[in-house]
Amino acid sequence: MVPGIGSFREKFKDYTDYYTIIGGTACDILLSEADLPFRATKDIDMILIMEDNFPEFASIFWEYIKEGSYKCGW
């Protein structure tokens, strides 16, 4: 399992219309549900979806980043 995915799910449970998880994390989630092995990644790749209440989501998103001391991997 991808580190942090549990806390991510909890923090954003009310905002599922504002993001889509992609890449290795998405594969890990889907294959785990099918009880198939997969090499988990260390990050959560996602696409953010800007809708009417996006500023509210963005505020929660940045709060999560600060709480976890996440940094850009570039």
Walk me through what this model shows.
The chain is α+β, with helices and mostly antiparallel strands. The protein has one domain. Helices cover 43% and strands 11% of the residues. It has helices at residues 5-11, 23-33, 54-67; strands spanning 19-22, 45-48. The protein starts with a helix and ends in a 7-residue tail after the last helix.
Top keywords for this entry?
3 helices; 74 residues; two-stranded antiparallel sheet; alpha+beta
SS class: alpha+beta
Strand order of the largest sheet: 1-2
Q: Residue-averaged pLDDT, rounded? A: 87
- Domain tally: 1
User: How many β strands by DSSP?
Assistant: 2
Largest sheet: 2 strands, antiparallel
**N- to C-terminal separation?**
23 Å
**Can you write the helix and strand succession as a string?**
HEHEH
Tell me the radius of gyration: 13 Å
Number of DSSP helical runs: 3
Approximate strand percentage = 5-15%
In percent, how helical is the residue content? 40-55%
Principal-axis shape equals globular
User: Low-confidence runs (pLDDT<50, min 5 residues)?
Assistant: none
